[in-house]
Amino acid sequence: MSYPFQVRTREEYDAAYKKSVEDPEGFWADVADTFVWKKRWDKTLEWNFTGPDVKWFAGGKLNITENCLDRHLATRGNEPAIIWEPNDPEEHHHIFTYKALHHKVMQFANVLKNNGVKKGDRVCIYMGMVPELAIAVLACARIGAIHSVIFGGFSAQSIADRLQDAQAEYVVTCDGAYRGNKDIPLKSVIDDALVQCRFVKRVVVLTRTRIPVSMLKGRDVWWEDEIKKVETMGNPDCPAEEMDAEDPLFILYTSGSTGKPKGVVHTCGGYMVYTTYSFVNVFQYKPDDIHFCTADIGWITGHSYIVYGPLCAGATSLIFEGVPTWPDAGRFWSIVDKYKVNILYTAPTAIRSLMSFGTGPVNAHSLESLRVLGTVGEPINEEAWHWYDEHIGKGRCPIVDTWWQTETGGTMISNLAGVTPSKPSYATLPLPGIQPVLVDEQGNELQGNGVTGNLCIKFPWPSIIRTTWGDHERCRTNYFATYPGMYFTGDGCLRDEEGFYRITGRVDDVLNVSGHRIGTAEVENAINMHAGVIESAVVGYPHDIKGQGIYAYVIYDGTHHDPALTRQDIAQTVGRIIGPIARPDKVQFVPGLPKTRSGKIMRRILRKIAEGETENLGDTSTLLDPGVVEEIKKGKV
Ligand code: PRX
Question: Is 406 in the pocket of ligand 1 (CB under 6 A)?
Fold first, then answer.
């Protein structure tokens, strides 16, 4: 497959960027024309950011799975689409050619149909990293059902919240999932969630770990039995549903600074065009390259750069079920050698964690197939960048530091591997079509280089968030109201003297723990559910491996005989309510919280104390009770 829109030199990048700003519609129409449409669109772009109301390729009809699968059958039918490496290196791996994947997707799409799923219905997918997860995602897209994948680490309560918000009547899950030496009972978590979700009509359960599960008569069915049923029906085909370019493709929940997670909605046409465009350009994908993205499909990175982007590009995408440190810290490297991986895309937290094992596990492998390295999810510190460059890339692989978000659908700011320059800890330059601006607190655009401000985007790109499911106003207030006329990212950013962008981290109350977004309000709500907790405040602090750790200040009423045990209980409560990723690393009992006279918690002070700062706490004159700060400093954990 050739990619007419791939830029291969710095000059081509400059020219593409210029065209994308001067004539965005012409630019994106040229890219979109390289895809398969059932009907070409009428208008390339209609937009305003006040609604917001953004439509790309309006009137166009397509099905993304025809672009991911059908169109490759004639040319790449026997080439690998997905390579699946199981958790246990002793277990047999699987390779799905484009033909095989196409067949499996149609089969499961028919299963969904047989079970009553129709276009526009929401299907929640809660599975481990098995190939059937990608198959279930694509099967939904095939019939126009809206998938909502929930990361396998979320708790029953988190699942119930999401199911209710999306009113998802269908669930696809596994009996259990393997992750390293753990065996996670997914179906039983779903059972707990569904106690609160009586509207769920059908649960399809894939066999993976063979852990005993209870199946509810009339509601729960086995994946394998359902496949057998459609096989005996004879016709394996499942025609691709005709979708409007602006029909929702999926909902993916993500944390914000307030309240419950919001359902970010992406649509079929624009998302397809942008994920493929960015995949091919950022990684400089070449036909036959093996692409290994280590993210979970439960996050946006997995949606865009394991499933949709690579498959639309006819690439070979590697899915790994396990974790980087099991059975040992050389697992990534042995996978790279086993499949001759060319592109490795991972998170800084994984790099830092593997660094802590030294170079022994790395040096046992050749890694000579690697050509491009990538990072995503959080700022990468220089030390980790250099280790990645020197020990993994052996100094010969460009590293792409890709900045983007669930809401942006695809990479927004990144160097293009080997085409535009890299700079440690910098995401560097915007992709063609992306117009970043830095603004001050008042929303004034900061011109020129050598400035720091809040990062906004002033023009729509094809995979921009369209709405938050069921609550369009929330989308407006979250992203388009802070700085009218612009999309606000929630990130702080520096543009250096050379015009390179460096993301400095969130400027709102959102934490980034091991590359996962967690709202402080969500964690506080969960802590407050623990009996005896009166109030709490959560902030982030620098953590060697996770990037940010979670520090909780808790006003506790009960008689706690053993503070260590109570701390553990509180952490466990959060684990139960949200999921293990949100468990606080540190819990400090405090007599009060630093509040202004109007009752607002001054998190700035709490953040400084959590970071170990005791002297320069800034202006504390507006505090209701400055004495409380001294108490908190004394009790720091
Ligand atoms: O703060 C930024 C950080 O992760 C946030 C987005 O999180 P999420 O929606 O979960 O998506 C993560 C995967 C795309 C951003 O607001 N972030 C993401 N990539 C980078 C980053 N921070 C610095 N450098 C990056 N490359």
Answer: yes
